[in-house]
Amino acid sequence: MRAQVCIIGGGPSGLLLSQLLHLKGVDTIVLERQSREYVLGRIRAGVLEHGFADLMREAQCGERMDREGEIHHGFFIAHDGKLDRVDLARHSGGNSVVVYGQTEVTRDLYAARDRMGGKVVHNAEDVTPHQVDSDAPYVTYRAGDDVVRIDCDFVIGADGFHGVSRKSIPKGVLREYERVYPFGWLGVLSRTKPVSPELIYCKHDRGFALCSLRSQVLSRYYLQVPLTDRVEDWPDHAFWAELKRRLPDAVAAMLVTGPSIEKSIAPLRSFVAEPMRYGRLFLAGDAAHIVPPTGARGLNSAASDIYYLYHALIDHYERGDDSGLDAYSGKALARVWKAQRFSWQLTMMLHRFPDHSDYENRLQATELEYLFSSDKALGSLAENYVGLPF
Ligand SMILES: Cc1cc2nc3c(=O)[nH]c(=O)nc-3n(C[C@H](O)[C@H](O)[C@H](O)COP(=O)(O)OP(=O)(O)OC[C@H]3O[C@@H](n4cnc5c(N)ncnc54)[C@H](O)[C@@H]3O)c2cc1C
């Protein structure tokens, strides 16, 4: 079998690239290890930068997002019993974010791929890239007893943090940077009215909390928990009671609780692998970098990789111009590191660190005091939150 571009991973990165390239007449195949139901069952990100939303529209996948997604012009930070608002529109020159779940993004991308006859192979086992440092790379996968070979011009590693693509790059080529935080986020999805129409990031002595949402009838709440905690340690009543303790009283009084329809714990980690290209293999999204969810950069950083890669591949196919491909790793990483810095800064500002001294705790409180006393500091926060330009 042959495709111009073989994409490993049918998450948002892989599907978005496949869809964008298809619309420009470039032939792709997507190899996904899991079933479609499994991929769509994962509850993850929910805040899209306006640049990502534009890319979805360009991919002809923005219709439902524009109809059902919510435009948010601000969010709140709760601290010391107060609720301060970050006015994104005012501090970022009129920009905003779209609240629309990653599950819905992925569903829309699959629907578009189906509509256009895109090739997406599910349950592809033992996917392996070969000879990516040559001019004739290929990828193999197993379907039952058969081994299928796909010859291609380029291999895209969009297979997430645990995927095979990054691991196929020889040791000594990649440099990896990592920070593991000493806590995780316990997330609950519930079919309840959100406590606030805008997100509330909550700094509290008992630990961080986040009130987020997917729609006006679907809420997503998070609690900072020790890494040793397990989901079984947190029955619904314990989750809601702890969330109420961490929210300002007026907010807690309005919280509508209900049965959880999903509950999971995600450890917090920052990770970057450099470079994002090895021969004809290009890494994109979580395959190359991950961030703690604070500040919602993960999915958005994946989208900016796809933006650069899409334009670079189109330049290659339409004009024989490889300068975009040559510049891809450097360009993508420059933006990735800014997203890393921003999510690290927010994570440091809002969480309780078990090993912090009183001095560090006072500095952390001063960060927030400074933020809400300075339009310039709010401008910097807002500019990063709505998304730096691609
Ligand atoms: C629990 C959790 C919560 C998150 N919350 C947020 C949030 O609130 N905000 C935010 O911005 N980001 C969040 N993120 C991050 C965000 O979900 C990711 O950045 C985003 O999914 C990246 O998309 P991707 O397509 O690059 O990778 P993925 O979504 O991981 O997709 C990769 C795909 O590749 C497939 N795959 C893996 N290995 C192979 C293989 N060997 N062969 C073939 N296919 C393979 C996987 O099954 C998967 O479908 C969260 C992540 C997690 C895990």
Radius of gyration: 21 Å
- What fraction of residues sit in β-strands? 25-35%
Order the strands across the largest sheet as they lie in space. 6-5-14-15-16-13-17-20
Are any ligands bound, and if so which? Answer: flavin-adenine dinucleotide
Fraction of residues in helices? Answer: 25-40%
Alpha carbon gap, first and last residue: 34 Å
In DSSP terms (H or I, runs of 4 or more residues), the helix count works out at: 12
- Overall mean confidence score, pLDDT: 96
The gross shape turns out to be: globular
Tally the beta strands: 20
Q: Spans with pLDDT under 50 lasting ≥5 residues?
A: none
**What does the main sheet amount to?**
8 strands, mixed
Report the structural category: alpha+beta
Describe this structure in words.
The protein has 390 residues and is an alpha+beta fold. Helix content is 36%, strand content 28%. The chain is built from 12 helices and 20 strands. The protein has helices at 12-23, 36-40, 50-58, 63-68, 88-91, 102-115, 236-246, 249-252, 298-319, 323-350, 358-371, 375-386, and strands spanning 5-8, 28-31, 47-49, 70-72, 74-79, 82-87, 97-99, 119-121, 125-130, 138-143, 146-151, 154-157, 175-190, 200-202, 209-215, 218-225, 260-274, 277-278, 281-283, 289-290. The strands form 4 sheets. The protein has an 8-stranded mixed beta sheet with strand order 6-5-14-15-16-13-17-20. α1 (12-23) packs parallel to α6. The mean pLDDT is 96. Flavin-adenine dinucleotide binds at residues 8-14, 31-34, 39, 44-46, 102, 124, 127, 158-160, 162-164, 266, 285-286, 293, 296-300, 302.
